[in-house]
Amino acid sequence: MERSNYTLLTEFILTGIPYPLKLRTFLFVFFLLIYILTQLGNLLILLTVWADPQLHARPMYIFLGILSIIDMGISSIIVPRLMMNFTSGIKPIPFGGCVAQLYFYHFLGSTQCFLYTLMAYDRYLAICRPLHYPVLMTTKLSLLLVAGAWVAGSFHGTLQAILTFRLPYCGPNQVDYFFCDIPAVLRLACADTTINELVTFVDIGVVVASCFSLILLSYFQIIQAILRIRTADGRRRAFSTCGAHITVVTVYYVPCAFIYLRPETNSPLDGAAALFPTAITPFLNPLIYTLRNKEVKLALERMLLGSKNKSEV
Prior knowledge:
mainly alpha; 3-stranded mixed sheet; 11 helices; globular
């Protein structure tokens, strides 16, 4: 009889983030614009890297193109569902939809962690070992590293989805969050979640701590190398390129650590923190990498001028 009760829960209701009702329309339009600009900005970077022969064969921009794909995916998984919370009526998410959302978010999120680490390592080789860089970081190797990041991310997402939804869920079905994420969903389980919480802490902790430590180590070496550059222009260009990456990494990792690597609490700050890796960072990446990267801006100008010349002909 208990087993049949477990099958009754076929959908979840996402309560969203708390907000004043008078701001409903404003928040809907705000996140709609965030979503549209995120998709257009990342698509523009992806097309620029793909179309420009000076960029799409270089490892740094291969990583940047993959980052744009991941940002478009994370935004599409989370933001449209978030926007539904700013419309009237209750809009439940099917059980299978909740599973898919949790899987793809952790799949793409962990892949992004690995990709940030690869980007830091790429910058380390380019700045600290410039003469050996073409040999150490080839296009073929960068593609293999990207493939490894995708595989590792898929494994992480699969592990978290299986562990979370192997548990019985027999009610209530209100997820106190704006998307199906591990801590919020586990609170609804009709079984002991100690093992899940431990595995989640260790798994995500290892991914975040190892990636972030490697990034810090890379940039420690990079900063030392930059300070040895004799020309002020050379130091400025190096700091500009690396500064964009450091900004993105900080905005991404700090909220993730706050959400997953602390004792279980149901704080309203969790939702605010989760907006950074799910909505804000995907929106900021195109701005940071275009406004602070001279090569991307030049490639974008070449692409736009080329299109203009073709239309005039």
